[in-house]
Amino acid sequence: MAKTSFSCSACGASFSKWSGRCEGCGEWNTITEDKGLSAGGPAKKSLGAMRGKRLELSDLATQEAPPPRTLSGVGELDRVLGGGLVAASAILVGGDPGIGKSTLLLQAAARFARNGLKTIYISGEEASAQVRMRAQRLGLSSSPVLLGAETNLRDILTTLEAEKPELAIIDSIQTMWSDTVDSAPGSVSQVRAAAHELTTFAKTNGISIVMVGHVTKEGQIAGPRVVEHMVDTVLYFEGERGHQFRVLRAVKNRFGPADEIGVFEMTGRGLAEVTNPSALFLSDRGDPTPGSVVFAGIEGTRPVLVEMQALVAPSPHSQPRRAVVGWDSSRLAMILAVLEARCGVPFAGLDVYLNVAGGMKISEPAADLAVAAALLSAREDTALPKDTVIFGEISLSGALRPAPQAENRLKEAQKLGFSAAIAPSGGKSVTIPGLSLKKASDLVGFVGEYFAAG
């Protein structure tokens, strides 16, 4: 039988029996019997008649100070975090095995500790001696970082509660296990429970917690997707094994841009930040070659110039190959179809290879025109001028659409010595001293002007 409860309609005080006068506020005839919070459902699963605590509500016009942030001193990391580390935030960092997640976070922990944050690094994958060896190799042995090696979640939370750090790094969430969950570490249940407990602990105790997550073969963080919804920020650490570049990309951020990137270079002394990634990605360019086009892109809030490389060759097979690295293969198929249907440029019987130089991954539609130019340049064996950048979106009708932040793209190109740019007509006119801007209204006109086809 459900227990009856009473509450005062004036002050909200709860009582186990009815009385004429409220002992909390002194009002008369304000105590009424509470109705159940749940209209139906199983008695053991519903909320029943027990009342909860009344929330303090505010309107949308309430002014609140922005959350306090702490800068690490690593400009690329602070940029991706949205301007520094937010107190009492939960951050999830994912990446391929061996890509440098532990190196990045150990360097970040050392920088934050030197800037005054009490920092604890908990390793569940390596022994303390291994972490010390990495710190010695990176020149971080003198940093005031507290180190621990443990996988028991209850022991870790007890330690954090006693030490009261301002930043805790958990490496990794897949190795943590809770004694209340009957499954092996790394299972869906254990990962969900550990992420929930750590995130709740961060919010209630004012501690910033960074969790490392493994990734699947598809490149997504392993475990239930609900883990990404629990945390405030999700970062991916990307890079190709054959390249020294590493990209830290924000895919979710409640305190800053959700598409920001930071670029690092892997060296013998750890990860070094790259303040001008455009110059780095274009450092190996030589004389103009067919199939090579420079794309002026935007990643987050920063303009980034990368080289799009294409190779078109006769196919010895009945089914031509379409290989893409660093771009969307479905979008490549769309560009090839538009070139054939709208411009009369066939790619049947030809193998097509597309690569984004430097290990970058491009996702914005503004790369369409640069890809089309690279494909046509490779097919016609005609090199575009070396000092030209290209950007613009291609529609299925063959029309060209202007790309956002055109001025920032052109300024970055001019800063790196480019003197010409090709972009779709339309949008606001932009004038950059020392850089000539050529406009193209549709793909047919672009192909006819620069490749004598269409």
Automatic annotation (TrEMBL):
GO terms for cellular component: cytosol. Residues 351-454 are annotated as: Lon-protease-like. CDD domains: RadA_SMS_N. One of its GO terms (biological process) is recombinational repair. One of its GO terms (molecular function) is zinc ion binding. Keywords: ATP-binding, DNA damage, DNA repair, DNA-binding, Hydrolase, Metal-binding, Nucleotide-binding, Stress response, Zinc, Zinc-finger. The keyword Zinc-finger applies. Residues 66-215 form the RecA family profile domain. The keyword Nucleotide-binding applies. ATP binds at G95, D96, P97, G98, I99, G100, K101, S102. Belongs to the RecA family. RadA subfamily. Plays a role in repairing double-strand DNA breaks, probably involving stabilizing or processing branched DNA or blocked replication forks. The middle region has homology to RecA with ATPase motifs including the RadA KNRFG motif, while the C-terminus is homologous to Lon protease. HAMAP family: RadA_bact. This is DNA repair protein RadA. It comes from Epibacterium ulvae. The lineage of its organism: Bacteria, Pseudomonadati, Pseudomonadota, Alphaproteobacteria, Rhodobacterales.
